[in-house]
Amino acid sequence: MHDTIDPNRPASYAAANRDIIRVLLQPNLGWLALFLTATAAMIYGGYCWYLQLTWGLGLGGYNPPIMWGIYIVTFVFWVGIGHAGTLISAILFLVRSRWRTGVYRASEAMTVFAVMTALLFPVLHLGRAWQVYWFFPYPNQRYLWMNFKSPLMWDVFAISTYFTVSAVFFFIGLVPDLAIVRDHSKGLVQKVYSVLALGWRGTGRQWHHYMAAYGFFAALAAPLVLSVHSVVSWDFAMAITPGWHSTIFPPYFVAGAIFSGCAMVITLLLPMTYAFGWKDYVNLWHFEQLAKMCLLTSGILTYAYGMEYFIGWYSQNPYEWAIFSWRATGEDYAWAFWVMVTCNCIIPLVWYFRPLRTNPVSLFVVSLFVNVGMWFERFNIVVSSLAHNFNPATWSYYWPSEIEWGIMIGSFGWFFFWFMLFLQVLPAVAIAEIKEMIAPPVRGAVEAK
Amino acid sequence: MNLHRRDFLKALGLSSGTSAIGACGIDANRYMTPVENVLPYVVKPDQVTPGTPTFFATSVLRGPHAHAATARHRDGRVINVGHNPMAPGRPSVSTSELMELQKHYSPDRLQAPQADGAATTWEAGLSTLATAVREARAAGKQVAYLGAYRSGALVELIDQVTEGHAVYWEPTGYEAEVAAAEALFGRRTLPFYDLGDADYILSFGAPFLGSWGDAAIEDRYALARDPNHGHGIVRFALVAPFRDQTGVNSDDWLACAPGSEVLVARALAARIASDKGVALVGQLAGGVTLEAAAEASGLSVEDLEGLVAHLTHGQAVVLPGGASGDADLAAATYLLNLALGAAPGRFHLGGYAGPVSGWSELSALLADCKAGKVGVLIVDEANPVYALPDAAGAAEALKAVGLVVGVSSHTDETTALASLLLPTSDAFEDWGDEQPVAGLRLLRQPAASPLYDTRSLGDVLLATARAAGLQAPEGSLGFAAPTWREYLAAVWARDLHQPAVDGAFGDFWEKSVIQGFWQGDAGDVTPALVAESYAWADAAPVAGDLVLLTHAHPLRKDGRYANQPWAQEVGDALTGMTWDSWLEVSHETAEALGLAPTGKQQRSGEFPKVSVTTDGGTVELPLRTRRGIKAGIAVLALGNGHVAAGRYADGYGVNAAKLFALAAGSLGAFAWRGQSAKVGDTGTLVKVATTYSNYDDTDQGRQFGMLVDAGRLAEHGDAPAAHAGELTGIHHLELDSRLAERDVEGFYTTPDHSTYRFGMTVDTNACTGCGACLVACYAENNLPVVGKGKLAEGREMAWIRLDRFWETAPDGTEQMAFVPMMCQHCGHAGCENVCPVLATYHNIDGLNAMVYNRCVGTRYCSNACPFSVRRFNYHTYHWPEPFNLQLNPDVSVRTVGVMEKCTFCVQRIRQVKSAAKDGGNFTATVPDEAWRQVPACAEACPTQAMTFGNLNDPEGACSQSRKSGRTYEPLADIRPLSAVNYLARATFHGDPTAHHGGGHGGGHEAAGEHAATHEGGSHEAPAHEGEAHEAEGHEMKDHHEAGSAH
Questions:
Q1: Tens digit of each residue's pLDDT (9 = 90 or more) over A60-89
Q2: Which of B172, B868, B898, B988 has its CA 20 to 30 A from that of B1015?
Q3: Whole-angstrom Cα Rg for chain A
Q4: At what angle do helices B153-162 and B457-468 cross, to 10 degrees?
Q5: DSSP classification of residue B983
Q6: Can you say whether residue B857 is alpha, beta or left, with left for phi > 0 and alpha for psi between -120 and 50 degrees?
Q7: CA distance B974 to chain A (A)
Q8: Number of domains in chain A
């Protein structure tokens, strides 16, 4: 397999063009199977939503006081996933981290699709989804206005801004590559890529403007990486529910988001690299860097989990302490808590050993555990806090219904539908930037540094 | 073609305009609500002002349950039942009255006469009846009547038509009490217990706060529990094998062996009679010693001595037994009352004096039926086929009757056997009168025209009597009156009208109709013993390892309200279980049976399904463990398990009556005597819909429920506490002193309420858990009934959750605190800030308002509500016709996806304000008196536990009540600034010897030593005042210790 982990493995510009573009618009059987599975899941989720719209949220497992369930859990999960791409493409660009080059395009695509997936949930968890436009400040004769004190309102702006900026940033990064695809295609396909490439010719003047714009958007996107999940965390931290009402939430959520996002990048890109034979462009060295990011954020999360307990004890707030001790020891959801701890705090520790973080099998398996663990982290926060609210006379138990599972599966279908489509129509590795890493084809060339 | 720009624009405008108009014409009705025209009256009916309710004084219930009420009337239909402010007694609406309202609109009502299952006309039906009556008389057969308790003019008419062959019988009625009164006092009447001045109540299981449904006794009980009322707090002791909803209100529970109550009562009576030298009572009580009673009952002699001490100390009242108490027990309690000198002040014979038939009369009637002696049997709201054990053979008896005529407004198991059904008008459509107690006569007037083709029972009887050519006895009113209303008026003219006092009869009648009652002299009600000896039946306790006992369900009663969705949907007061029957045992008994539920089963609301076998038969039902049941006792409520009573009753639960042996008790009165039962495991689990969490039956020290020491409270009354937590022992986090110095209320500004700040005080010491507030809320606010399946998923819509918490007093006794939890209308509401679309907001009157139309259903408000009192419309619910006619037009009916919650009945608040404006009051605030009972729950509460008012008025009743030392605000630590405050429940846990809260003698000092403490004794209240002002940090720690004691 990959014996060398050399980021600057010599390759030619032509080879880069050929290797990356080769896979476009070439659906093989494996791709088709995955794509159709995702589509089927998406349609099934849509059908479940249709049922829910028709009959009401009573098809879910909600019962007071647990009024949010896996829709919100999965929403936060996808928003979290959506953090890695922009982190990699924008922040690592600004700090000139070389390993970003190979992975940032696919991560960015993942981000855009993850945010698109996350955006489904605030709509479909509503009791009256058809009134969702009331979230927006549109002019109306009835002087109806929204409540800017509500964290859900902040969500609307934070996530829509994040989606817009990351989508635009994604597209800007694509322009030079789209021009390469244009130049290597014919007929109608070429016409489509011509429109998308916005007349890119790769002149010095274009590159000059391009790099300025890219830097500008990177600077714009970078703070959003931190702000979006902070705002999402306020959905919980601003409500007085024990287990939610905590100032630790913003940093804790952002760290968790990066953790889950990087793990998801590993989950998605590792198979992609092997399937497309792109070991020259994305290889274990890149994944090792991602694993290190996960290790860092896993440590932060472990600290945050511990600190929640410490504050629960130290504050002597009986409700706070009750919910945290019940979360870890209570009969209903303790298993979910320990799944979370095992997946997020313990299993990633294997990556402290270099052979295990440079081994594709271990990378892939551990990243899957992290994905599961991060879903359960949100499950613990959302469900168990509500289940044991202030008043013991209301304590209850929630388990998602078939409809909720269906919609959740549908959301994965929706995400993979877009991601599989992306792999077929857009270059999943940034060709132009890869070329920056390749020694220029000039006489007496030296290795690029 | 040369098209000018202007022509183009004209054409464009024309075409787009027409297409837009066309689109409107086509699509308007497809996507919008159908257009309904609102037209004003051309000639307005006298009693109808659109948009305002009209009230008609009436009496909804009958016989001993009758109670002065008003029918709240809107647009030609009755939408609610309220109290009658002109009648004696404090405001109150019992659950039964509301159930009658729902029964009025039941989709299962009989809508037209039926003969042999086919529709027929009234003329044909009446002619069939008259012919049958004539033939029966000619053949020398009886024309008999079988009905529930009835009083007043109707009884006279029935007795004349049936020539005395009338049986008035209810399965959990008062025949034992009446039989005992006849045996001892020579009068067939119910005693009247006046608890208002009592300072000690000893009950042998009487459900006087539950299925008796007696507003007067509940009202007087509340007065006796009121610490501001002269005597301090009445101490309530219960001698019974289990505590029902009434029983959990007791301060002391002496768990006796089933069937031994009578020996205890006799022993106490004999002992006290001999102590006091009341020879005749002692002689009648028949020399049972305390030792003998102790041995039979399983109580200790010290317990009984303690009871003697309590009883003889002050002004005690003794109440009889429950459904399983027989006539001997009633007689023994009468003797005990006499020995105590309770008569005639607290115990007299001024109770219900209407006909109460005994089991002997009913069994004689059934025997006559079987013997073919009955030609016509008129069945009126009596359901012996359902309510009697099968051995009674009620169904066979009915089949042997020539013509069975059902004259109730509903079908049930008994009318299913009737060949002729003549549906009668119900209490909201009919005239009538009732005599619930001596000296009071209630007049019923129709509040709405009949919904269906029904006639009044009086008219049916008069018409039948005339058509059959019956002869009335000499001197009676006869059958000449053309209508029932005129017959009734004639009875009132004969019996009650005094021309010298009342003037012309027309004026007297009109006044009586308007005020709904007549009050006169009660006559001599002194209980004078006429018996010289009493034949006590052998009171052998029921044998068997497990004894099955029963009682009437507080909501469904003996089964008469089982088909009312509210009676099924509102959770049982002690278990929260709905839409089912369940066997209740103590946890120890369940363990002994090997059926104790696991924690997981209990939490998920799944209960082991067990089979219960007695001599009467076997049923399968869920087993529920709870506190307050003696080991070896199983309790199963009556009232469910119907097979032909309607869509909401049939198939829910089991019929407990079928498990009981048919055995007449002492004095021939029917009693639900304990049955030896076998309980077997079916190995399956069954999910029961509950409205309470099954996680814990305590509040885990979180101070939602609160006990205070009654002895200490008696010293104190409801005077303001000298320092926070003086009585309750609660120390909330104090405001940061730096903020306090600067007169800053806290981090967030307190909302400004310039005119009104509506609030409520709920006295948990008065709350008995009857559920009237919940049912009234269902009726007033159009709350949908979601049904068994949806309720099991946690979809109930009740705006009031009757939280019940077992609190353990320092002496180890378990006390129940009922805490009705509705929206607290917080000043700093968690819900208001989080709503993204401002569907819930704080209004200027301090109400936490909810705009249903604006709600998008994020449910964030519910998550942020620390009291979890918000309800979500998971579906759009529909009211089967004609339930929709009961909907309150002042309250929107909510649809799917919308959050809702208690509004403090904002529609009623608006009515009061509008009425004040109509009266010319545009500037001044409406005075406090107008507010006290405005919300439907506060109006209904039989014990006046809820006081509503304007907190901005410092002299108002609500403001004043929360100055009490008993006041506590749940979760005050998180500073919600709730508008609802609670008053702690007083108990005698600090002093088992205190006779009552009156601070007499020794109880006084003892009470002082035991400061009020919270449950588990984990929290010692400050013995010295200084300690209450400790540093905040310490108090906070204190609180935590209380919270984590579990």
A1: 988 888 999 999 999 999 999 998 888 888
A2: B868
A3: 23
A4: 30
A5: E
A6: left
A7: 8
A8: 1
Residue whose pair of structure tokens reads 């200084």 in the numeric block: B1026
User: For position A259, which CATH number holds?
Assistant: 1.20.1630.10
Query: DSSP of B391-460, one letter per residue?
Result: GG-HHHHHHTSSEEEE-SSB--TTGGG-SEE-PBP-TTT--EEE-SSTTEEEEE--SS--SSS-B-HHHH
Q: Which residue of B has its CA nearest to A237?
A: B864
- Evaluate whether B351 touches B181 at the Cβ level (below 8 Å): no
- Please indicate whether, in this complex, the C-beta atoms of B836 and A238 are within 8 angstroms of each other: no
Q: Which of A76, A150, A235, A333 to mutate to test the interface with B (most CBs of B within 10 A)?
A: A150
Angle, helices B175-185/B327-340, rounded to nearest 10 degrees: 50
Task: Dihedral sign for Cα B105, B111, B115, B117, please.
Answer: negative
A226 within domain boundaries: yes
Is residue B742 exposed (0-12), middle (13-18) or buried (19+ Cβ within 10 Å)? exposed
Are residues B835 and A128, on separate chains, in Cβ contact within 8 Å? no
Q: Please give the ipTM for the structure prediction.
A: 0.92
pLDDT per position as a tens digit, A266-321:
999 999 988 888 887 888 888 999 999 999 999 999 999 999 999 999 988 889 99
CA B183 to each of CA A48, B168, B171, B672, B892: distance values in angstroms, whole numbers, following the listed order: 71, 19, 21, 21, 56
At how many degrees (to 10) do helices A151-183 and A204-237 cross? 150
Q: Which residues of chain B have pLDDT under 50?
A: 20-33, 998-1046
Asked if residue A373 is part of any domain, the answer here is: yes
For the record, the structure tokens of B614 come out as 């007695």
What is the number of alpha carbons within 13 Å of residue A257 lying toward its C-beta? 32
Of B803, B804, B876, the CB nearest to A56: B876
The residue of chain B nearest to residue A394, with distances taken between CA atoms, is B693
The shortest C-alpha distance from B843 to chain A (Å) reads 15
Residue A448 inside a domain? The answer is no
pLDDT band (50, 70, 90) for residue A441:
low
Distance CA B817, CA B828 (A): 26
How many Å apart are CA B970 and CA B826, to the nearest integer? Answer: 11
- The 10 Å CB-count burial string (b at 16+, else e) for B621-646 is bbbbbbebbbebbbbbbbbbbbebbb
Chain A, 124 to 143: residues with Cβ < 8 Å from chain B are 125-129, 131-132, 134-135
Stated pTM of the model: 0.88
* Structural domain that includes position A303: 13-437
Find chain B residues with C-beta within 8 A of A322's C-beta: 700, 1043-1044
Structure tokens at A146: 């929204």
DSSP A75-96: HHHHHHHTTHHHIIIIIHHHTT
Using an 8 Å CB-CB cutoff, list chain B residues near A235: 860
The reply to whether A329 falls in a domain is yes
Q: Which of A145, A317, A396 sits opposite B794 (nearest CB)?
A: A396
Residues B756, B759, B760, CA angle at the centre, nearest 5°?
150
CB–CB contact A396 B693 (8 Å): yes
Coil, strand or helix at B141: coil
All residues of chain B having their beta carbon less than 8 Å from the beta carbon of residue A63 are 793-795
CB contact under 8 A, A128 and B804: no
> Which chain A residues touch B700 with a CB distance below 8 Å?
322, 392
**Tokens of residue B504, six digits:** 């012309």
Helix (H, G, I), strand (E, B) or coil at B487: helix
List C-alpha distances in Å: A381 to A65, A97, A305, A370, B192.
14, 34, 11, 16, 58
Min Cα distance B853 → chain A (Å) is 10
Measured in whole angstroms, the distance separating CA A212 from the mean position of its chain's CA atoms is 26
Domains along chain B with CATH numbers: 114-170+356-434+440-519 (3.40.50.740), 190-348 (3.40.228.10), 547-678 (2.40.40.20), 707-786+797-822+904-1043 (3.30.70.20)
